[in-house]
Each structure stands twice: as C-alpha cells, then as structure tokens.
Write a structure and sequence with these properties.
31% of the residues lie in helices and 21% in strands. It has helices at 56-77, 131-144, 146-150, 161-171, 173-178, 185-194, 206-212, 225-231, 233-239, 258-264, 278-285, 342-352, 362-370, and strands at residues 5-11, 15-22, 28-35, 53-54, 86-93, 98-101, 122-123, 181-184, 204-205, 246-247, 252-255, 271-273, 276-277, 294-297, 301-308, 322-324, 331-338, 380-382, 400-402.
C-alpha cells in the first residue's frame, strides 16, 4: 500500500505556505511559499498607522501556486508519488482577519466597485483601527453581559471580529451595507476550496468564533441580537446572518471542488478540514498536552495551553479567550501573546540597521547578540510595538528602547 500524505496551508502576515507531510510519521516531504502581491510585503497600508488590510485575491492565488509547487516537489522527492496519495488538507490563517462577503459568500473586493477599497478587503489581524469600538463593546458588556468578557480576559480587543466590523459600519457604511455577512479568513479559505462559501453551506471553526467573536454554546452562540443592537441596530441585524454551523477541527467542511482539482492537480473530493488560527494548529502540530505551553513565534506571538473540558477552570484575566474545542476537541483552549515580535525583529533589521548596510541580517545580528552577556548592552526594551495584546489588551500603547 502506498504511503499517505496530508497538506497544510498556512496563511501568514506576508505570505502563504503549503507543507506536505507523511501521515505515518510526520516527515516533511515538500514545502512551498508565495509572497502576497498586494500592498507592502503583502499588507495594504495607509496614512493611518493603525490600518492593515490584505487583498483576498492573494489568498486565491497563493493557494493555487503553493499547492501546485508542493505536488511537483513531492513527485521529485518520492518515487511513485501521486496526488491521490494525499488524503486530507488543513488550513490555518492569521486572525482575527474578517472579510466582508456578498450574499453568495464572495469577498466584496474580488469584484465590482470595491476592488480597490481597503474597507472591502480582509481586515488583517493587526489592524487596530477599531480601538474606540473595542472600548464601547467592552463597556457595554461590563454593564449588561459580563459573561462575554469573562471568557476573553475581561477586555474586548481592537484586533477582534466585532471591533473591526463596527468600525467599518461607522467609517465605510457603503461597504458595510453591501456586505451580506463577514467571514473569518480561517473559515473562508476552506469554504473557497470546497465551494461552500454560500451562507446555507458555510461551516466555520470554533477557534475563530470563540476567541475573537465571543461565540460560546453556553449563551447560544454569538453575542445576542439585543446586545449587538445596543451598539448599533445594524450590528443586531447582522447577528441573524452569521453562520450557525460552528465546528472543531476534527470535522471536514467538504471536499475539494472539481475546479480546484484542475487548478492544483489534487484529487476532487479531497476532504478539507474546518479551519483554525495559525498558532492553535501549530500547537496541535507540536503535540500539545495538558500542562504544556506552546509558544508560536511569528510576526506576533501566541501562547497556548489546553485543559480537559471536564475539569474546573477559572476565568483568567488578560487571556485572549478560553474556548472549548478551539485547539483540540474535548479540551478548553487558552490563548495569550503579544502583538509584535517578528515585526519588531524585521523593523530592527530593516529600518534601524544596527550593522549598517553590511551583513545586516537576522542571522548576523543573532551571532553578534550571542556574544553579549545578559544586560551587558545597557539597553532596556519595552516590546509594546503594535500595542499590548495580553494582559493589558491596549493597542494604543507604544514600544520603547532606552539606553
């Protein structure tokens, strides 16, 4: 019997990656990366330093390019490899990265008058334009729905789902009114690959819904219509158009469409799993178990732990969510982290350029830093570039280098 393989698609801040592994032992067989084409290093920016968007067209192109590349590499690396030896595909993305979609589930930015409108694009995880709206959501929840905040650390963040949608409603009402609904990137990519974008077919993941959109089965799913209507009547109306089918990653959203089979060379009908966030699926890949903290380091960091769902668990202030099934089914997923880590390293290397134009790479700086004893430089750093994600949950805060 031939070996069997699985593919993971990882949508990051600057690029998308595809990885093909053996399901027998986790051996990495092939990997491919494609840098997003739009914006600056894949991020659409503006004069507002809090704005960060991505064009959904890059998500489509990225899937096609990287999936084709890993299949080509696998054929070279493994004698007798065939695409139908691949038995599953999983997707992880940044988040919260919600996308305004039309009644067919298609992103507004992929067609018509909104193609170049940043408000109609994907609102990237590090878009912090909704700081004021996050504050209003937090204040109202403290007043009438404290249980919502108890499961997300006590403060709702501008990085999350409803803050961004609320800000769009206020600042780009034409886009908000044109959108039938909003779908997380982690949910839209699996739907795109399986032809299940339409509202009646869509399935979304509990990871994104629980950690960023205050979804919880204990209170009937998303925040109720009355709560959202007090923020804005239009948000209350949107509540009825949010997907009610919320699942964990052990379920498939559907099979790969004939169109995507032709575009990539993968077999039609290939099961595509429910999507989740990058760090949470990274924790699965690390073999996360109770009592183990997994720290995923990328553009930002995300720290994750799990606790069996049958065990008592206190509400922990400052966490980015306590969500049943968000990492592994049968376990509460706990998340924390910081908004800038790899971002800070890239800024330091590319803009500060401490080694000047010569050898100013991450590798060269790592070698130089390794020669220093702790504290020898005399520098003190406060790593709140892009704000503080946990435990303060304040994106207005700024970083500092002193010394």
């Amino acid at each position: 019997m031939p070996a069997r393989y699985s593919i993971g698609l990882d949508y990051g801040t600057n690029s998308v990656r595809a990885l093909l592994v053996s399901v027998a032992d986790g051996r990495e067989v092939a990997v491919a990366t494609w840098d997003y084409a739009h914006g600056r290093q894949g991020v659409v920016l503006s004069a507002d330093p809090n704005l960060a968007r991505q064009h959904p067209a890059d998500y489509v192109t990225g899937a096609e390019v990287t999936l084709k590349k890993v299949l080509t590499q696998a054929k070279r690396a493994v004698r007798g490899f065939k695409p139908d030896h691949v038995i599953g595909l999983g997707v992880d993305t940044t988040g919260s990265t919600p996308i305004p979609v039309d009644a067919a589930g298609h992103p507004l930015a992929l067609s018509g008058k909104f193609q170049k409108n940043p408000a109609a694009m994907a609102w990237l995880w590090k878009d912090h334009t909704g700081v004021a709206e996050a504050g209003e959501i937090t204040a109202l929840a403290k007043k009438i729905r404290p249980q919502y905040l108890a499961k997300c650390g006590g403060t709702y963040s501008s990085e999350w789902f409803f803050s961004k949608i609320f800000h769009c409603l206020r600042t780009s009402p034409a886009v908000f009114d044109a959108a039938h609904s909003w779908v997380e990137l982690a949910d839209w990519v699996p739907a795109m690959l399986t032809g299940t974008e339409a509202p009646e077919k869509l399935t979304v993941g509990v990871c994104a819904a629980g950690h960023k959109a205050m979804y919880n089965a204990d209170w009937g799913g998303y925040p109720d219509e009355e709560f959202l209507s007090q923020l804005s009547p239009k948000l209350g109306q949107l509540r009825t158009r949010l997907c009610p089918r919320v699942r964990a990653i052990d379920k498939a959203v559907g099979g790969l469409t004939e169109e995507w089979a032709k575009r990539t060379g993968l077999p039609a009908g290939l099961p595509v799993a429910v999507g989740a966030f990058d760090a949470h699926l990274g924790a699965v890949g690390c073999g996360i178990t109770p009592g183990t903290l997994v720290k995923a380091i990328g553009t930002s960091t995300c720290d994750t732990m799990i606790v069996p769902s049958g065990e008592p668990l206190a509400d922990v202030p400052g966490l980015c969510g306590i969500v049943n099934g968000s990492i592994l089914p049968g376990y509460y997923g706990l998340e924390a982290g910081q908004s800038a880590v790899g971002d800070i390293f890239n800024w330091f290397v590319n803009y500060i350029q401490p080694l000047g134009g010569r050898a100013g790479s991450h590798e060269a700086l790592s070698v130089a830093a390794a020669k220093l004893k702790p504290g020898e430089s005399g520098l003190l750093a406060l790593d709140w570039n892009n704000g503080n994600r946990t435990i303060l949950v304040d994106q207005r805060l700024t970083g500092l280098l002193l010394g």
